[in-house]
Structure formats: C-alpha cells, structure tokens
Design the sequence.
RNA sequence: GGCCCCUUCGUCUAAUCGGUUAGGACACCAGCCUUUCAAGCUGGCAGCAGGGGUUCGAAUCCCCUAGGGGUCACCA
C-alpha cells in the first residue's frame, strides 16, 4: 500500500462522456498500479448547471465501467465530505484566512463594470485581466461598500512580476509569466467558491498526491499553484493528459455522434472493450499489442508513457475492438451482456428460464462472429425468436421464383430431415449431402434455398448451426410452411 | 489577439544514449479459407508538417515558419 491518492472530480452538469471516462480510467489505473487510493469527488459548485440526475448518471457510468472508487460520497472516509456543496464552510474559512493575511481582498465591481473593462482592454489588444480597482481600498471604504454595494466577491492578490513554473510528469517544466495572471475570484458573490479555489483546497485537504486531469486545465495550473502556496499547501504532482478530439479536430460534442458512456452502453459496446480502447487513446504499452485485458493494462501502465498530443477518437476502431471482445469473451459473459438487449426487445422474458438462457446462448454462439455491437444482435437473430420472419425479396425472386427445381429439392430435404432419428451434426450434414447426390444437383442448390426457407435471409451463420439450433421439428415446419407460402410444392 | 501545449501512414500509435528497409493496429484493397455473410490467415497501399542549422550521421537535438488544440468566466 502506497500513499498515492488520486482523484476524479467531475461536475454533475452532464452525462459522463468519453473524455471524462478516460481521465477517470487513467486515475484509476494509476491508483491500481501503485496500490494507492482512487477518490471520487463531486465538483458541484456550479449551482446553475449541476443536477442530481447527472450525478446519478455519473455514478452509473463509472460503476458500469467497473472504475470503483475507494472514497467518495457513498464511500465516506476520513477526508469527507466528498461533495463540494457540502464543504462550503471549509472554503469560506480558507478565504478568510487569506483575507486576514492580506493575500486576498474584497472586490465590489459589478459584473457589468467588469464586462465593460474587459471590452476596452480587449480592444487595445491586451490580455483582459482584472486591473484591481478594488485592490487597495482602505478598510473604511471597504466597510462602506459592503453596505452599499449589491454584492462582493473575494479576489486573490496575485503578483504581477516573476514567473511560475509548473512541473508536469507528461510535459516537463512549463513556465508561465505572472504578468498574464490576474486577481482571480476565490469566492463568488453568492458565497460559493470558484473551481480553481475549491479544487486546490480540496486536493490539499484530501491529501491528493497526483492530479491527473485533462490538458484544458494546464493553463489554470499556475493560478492554482499560487493559491496553494499562499495557503501554505504542498503541491501535488501534475499530469495533464491530452484531449480527445472529434474526427474534424474540433472539441468532441453531441453533433459528433455518440460521446457519452451511456450511449455506448446503449449501442452495445461492452465495458472491457471501451476500457481497452480508451486506454490506448493517449497511452500505449510500448509493445505491439492492442488487445489488452484490464489487469495487463494495470501492470503496464505508467504516467510517463502517456502521449503529449491530442488524440482523435475513431469509432471504427472502437467497434472493431468491441467485436473482438464479443467473439472472444466467455459465452456465459456474452450471455450476461446480451440479455438486456433481448429483454428490451421483448423476445426473452424478464426472468429468463434456464431453457431460454441456453437457447439464447446457442444463438449467440453461432452469431457472435457476425456482429460488432450488441445493439445489432437482436435484429441479426430475429428469426430465431419468431416464426413470422421476413423474407428477403431478392432471395425469394432468385431462389423461389426463378429456380424451378427449388420446390422439388426443399420437399425432398423436408422428407429426409423428418426421417432422421438423431438430429445432430453429422447426421444432418450427411442427409443434406445425400439429397444433393440423389437429385444430382450441387450442394449449393440445396443449401442456398434451404437457408432462405429457414431464415428468410441469404446470409448468416453456418447452415448446419442454424438447423441444429432450430431443431428438427421447427426446421421441418419452416420448410413446409415456405413450400406452401411460395407455392413451391 | 496574449499566453501555454502539441505536430510520425486517413486514424490510434512504436522507434532505450542521434545510426531502423521508420514497426504494429483500425480503415481500405487483394488473395486464401468457404454452400452465404462474417470471423480467421497471408499480402498490399500509406507517414517523419515545411525550412534552416548542429553532426560523419537527425523522426530523434536547436531555431524559425506553418497548422491544430487549450486557456484568458462570479463554468468546470
């Protein structure tokens, strides 16, 4: 057990999306690898956008992925509470301390004033920084303003000279000029802390040793370091992981298709595949391998091997990988993963009988090579669950209408199958071969129309497998029904 | 716009201290297998952003340019 403590701190303002999931994964992996603790903290200081529903969604997504946390809102330990909105007094206290030490000050500027100033500064081509109108207000005037002004915020007194160096495991030393920093707001007028402040306070109080987060936070880090220093906190180790971009190089958003973990789940991506794919986005084991079970990723993982450059996510590779997992996982596991899809479609009952489970398992066994996501499975196997399956018009035209021999062949197949005592692989195979020989036609002339009669389709699993899964009675019945329906007798 | 980060096949990436026919994977193409479709196997296509240096030698080190991304909120 090491003293490594990492954290994933989402804000409940939306579904957990792929980028957040990867950040969570990297943190989790690092904790696993080092024997440290993975902490889930909820950064809900944005009152407007945070919602309980989103919080639930985040829990669900992380749980589904199997990224379990050692400490969090529902796993209280000595560093709680783990929800920022329940820690307000802690931030207020920290801010008061800075105020008393002269490291922060009250600012009474209104939002409108600020916007105006910003506009002017921007037009002059400068970086818009807060210029500190309220920086040096004498105490008396402060007290007066407190009474007369609408509201006030607490700002950090930030140095205008010198530079701040951020040490990042992935990027090395990054230097920022303090002149570009402004007096950022610590406590908003509604009394809630801002992200930068709350985050620093909590990371320190929660004894976070490594801050692993998205690169978009790199530019905020000098500010955060300064806050930490003013508060007398030790700095954590930073690791800013590259962003995940959409195929058009822009920031990933809804218009790029599925981006939330929930959506992937619904389309039938399995957790193992998503985790494997995500791990490879911005990290590589250093050897020529792509398929890596989680346990191995944990063993091979290191922050140093995380890439510097942003990655564009590739849906095709994800689905390829998912397909690979689908056809190599244990059949029982595949059944577990697939069950909800079939239940949702109403073809398997909510509490499946052993018979139903075995049947679905048999269907999955012969279909798994042909699907990439579980969402396709129901449609692809529909004829195993209903007798009124649709017939492919092209196939019907070619096999049933244009081919005059089909009726004779299928009739014969039906008779021969009916006559079988043991409806098993070799017997059925030999029976079909026998029909071809007997009628002096190629095996294809027998098999192609037979497949169409049994499934309504021209493509699918091995014919023999279909026959065996369907069983003798249903197979024969389907052939007979087809002969009748298309008037082939 | 200021600041920061990044730049190897279309995409994800590998290449310990500079010396490789620049490797793998997805996608794509072809062949094999096969009564279908897949899967699988084999092979192919395809890359060091551009320009200067340093060096016997540079994808690798330095500089410049270009491009992409991030950030500059009383969002996180």
Sequence:
């Amino acid at each position: 057990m090491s003293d490594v403590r990492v954290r994933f701190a989402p804000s409940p303002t939306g579904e957990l999306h792929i980028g957040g999931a990867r950040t969570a994964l990297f943190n989790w992996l690092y904790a696993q690898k080092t024997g440290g603790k993975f902490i889930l903290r909820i950064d809900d200081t944005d009152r407007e956008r945070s919602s309980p529903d989103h919080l639930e969604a985040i829990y669900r997504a992380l749980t589904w992925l199997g990224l379990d946390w050692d400490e969090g809102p529902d796993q209280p330990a000595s560093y709680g509470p783990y929800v920022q909105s329940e820690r307000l007094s802690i931030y207020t206290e920290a801010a008061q301390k800075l105020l008393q030490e002269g490291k922060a000050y009250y600012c009474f500027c209104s939002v409108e004033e600020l916007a105006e100033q910003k506009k002017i500064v921007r037009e002059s081509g400068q970086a818009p920084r807060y210029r500190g109108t309220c920086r040096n207000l004498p105490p008396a005037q402060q007290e007066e303003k407190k009474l007369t002004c609408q509201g006030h915020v607490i700002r950090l007194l930030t140095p205008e000279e010198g530079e701040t160096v951020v040490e990042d495991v992935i990027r090395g030393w990054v230097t920022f000029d303090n002149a570009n920093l402004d007096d950022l707001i610590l406590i908003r007028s509604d009394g809630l802390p801002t992200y930068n402040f709350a985050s620093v306070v909590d990371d320190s109080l929660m004894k976070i040793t490594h801050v692993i987060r998205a690169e978009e936070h790199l530019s905020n880090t000098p500010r955060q370091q300064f806050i930490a220093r003013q508060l007398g906190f030790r700095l954590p180790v930073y690791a800013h992981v590259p962003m995940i971009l959409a195929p058009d190089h822009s920031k990933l958003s809804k218009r790029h298709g599925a981006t939330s973990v929930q959506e992937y789940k619904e389309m039938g991506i399995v957790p193992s595949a998503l985790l494997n794919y995500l791990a490879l986005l911005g990290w590589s084991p250093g050897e020529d391998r792509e398929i890596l079970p989680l346990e191995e990723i944990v063993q091979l993982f290191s922050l140093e091997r995380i890439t510097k450059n942003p990655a564009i996510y590739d849906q095709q590779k994800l689905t390829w990988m998912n397909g690979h997992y689908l056809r190599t996982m244990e059949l029982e596991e595949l059944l577990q993963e697939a069950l909800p899809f079939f239940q949702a479609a109403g073809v398997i009952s909510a509490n499946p009988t052993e018979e139903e489970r075995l049947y679905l398992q048999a269907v999955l066994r012969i279909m798994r090579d042909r699907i990439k996501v579980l969402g396709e499975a129901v449609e692809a196997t529909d004829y195993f669950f209903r007798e009124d399956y649709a017939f492919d018009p092209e196939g019907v035209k070619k096999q049933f209408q244009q081919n005059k021999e089909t009726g004779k062949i299928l009739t014969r197949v039906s008779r021969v199958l009916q006559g079988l005592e043991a409806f098993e692989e070799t017997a059925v195979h030999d029976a079909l071969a026998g029909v071809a020989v007997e009628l002096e036609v190629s095996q294809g002339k027998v098999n192609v129309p037979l497949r169409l009669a049994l499934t309504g389709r021209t493509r699918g699993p091995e014919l023999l497998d279909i026959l065996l899964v369907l069983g003798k009675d249903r197979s024969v019945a389907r052939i007979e029904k087809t002969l009748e329906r298309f008037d082939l007798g």
Observations:
- The CA atoms of residues 38 and 69 of chain A lie 5 Å apart.
- The mean pLDDT of chain A is 92.
- Residues 87-241 of chain A form a domain with the Rossmann fold fold (CATH 3.40.50.620).
